[in-house]
Amino acid sequence: MAESLVARFRERIRREPTVDYTWQEPPIRPRPPLTPEALAAAEGRLGFPLPPLLQALYTQVGDGGYGPGRGLEVLAEGEWSLVAHVEAIRRPEWPRRFIPLISWGGLYRSWVDCSAPPYPVWFDDPDYGVEGAPESDYFYPQAESLEGWLSEWLDGADLWLAGKRHKSAEPGTAPDTAR
């Protein structure tokens, strides 16, 4: 399935818009793909490999700038990159293989648990706003699988509406920090 998703993304970025957020100026555009060496360096900084689908997207489609919301985050270049974000928040209580993949604006993000297939997607809701609540309570399951989630977007689903504020999730369901 990953190969067909990569092909669908390649086709999708040939036409506009390449992201959901079309009102942003300057427009968000796909960046050139990463070299295998650049991907390996980014994974080295993270301390773990990305899921195979993300490896393929970053090296065969582009280094961010396409996909749901504001598009996949740039992997490692610059202070706003996915790797820089992970390095900035890394601490013992944080899930080790948890990465911010998509920004929805503000502090809203969709994260991927890279610890094991099917690589579930989580929504970070900073408006949860219960004073004293642990940070893990701000996360809700968004999709069981990264491939399924991205496939839904390619099929036309509005993943912002599908993922926003799943209050039915039990508080504290964020991924285990031991992974």
Automatic annotation (TrEMBL):
It comes from Gemmata obscuriglobus. It holds the Pfam family SMI1_KNR4. SMART domains: SMI1_KNR4. Residues 33-156 form the Knr4/Smi1-like domain. This is SMI1/KNR4 family protein.
